[in-house]
Amino acid sequence: MADECQVNGYDVISEKFRTLLGLEKSPVAVKLVLREEDLPEGIEKIDKPARHCEMVQMAAAGESFYAPADSQACKGGADALGIDEAPAKVKTGEFYYQLGRFASFASAKRTFDEIPSIDLKFYAAVYAPLEKATFDPDVIVIICNPAQAMKISQALLYTLGGRVEADFSGIQSICADAVAGPYLRKRPNITMGCSGSRQYAGVRDDELIVGLNGENIGCVVNALEAIS
């Protein structure tokens, strides 16, 4: 198993993903940092606040930075990542109910309560295109089309077989589904995106999002190479 997971460097992994899948953008390395002193050396704070989904797109386009609570423009996303608290109206379900997404407060609250949320207080999230990552990512986020996600799914099952389970609700997609979920559950996830990520971060109608665990990313990319 060790040989199957061995890859020399995140630049190599990123290049393999981009070449084998035909990705338009880089896979994104995301690391959650507990304390300020744990920030990777040489990574600067983002210039201005942005939503987590926007920051993933910025990193996919080549930027590297970190974002503490005061740089996280979407507090719902920051709450899922364990960086900040969600507003009360989000926690009660009132926010999503008022948007017309649910028939009742109860259905909105039930959905929010089941969204993956990290119960730690992190200082910041660090973002970088995978090929430029100078740190070990907790999660790697890939924005891709359905055919590319299919190939990733096949790679995930290459060694042990089984099924790929996708867990999503159409809200808090790139934050909760693609990062918090894999971080907490130690298994990958595929999510369809959400209205926020499509409106603010430019996720296209023909794109979806895959969140992969950083610990075994070498296994995944080597499996992808084997089936290509």
Automatic annotation (TrEMBL):
InterPro entries: DUF169. It comes from the Archaea. PANTHER family: BLL4979 PROTEIN, DUF169 DOMAIN-CONTAINING PROTEIN. This is DUF169 domain-containing protein. The lineage of its organism: Archaea, Methanobacteriati, Methanobacteriota, Methanomada group, Methanobacteria.
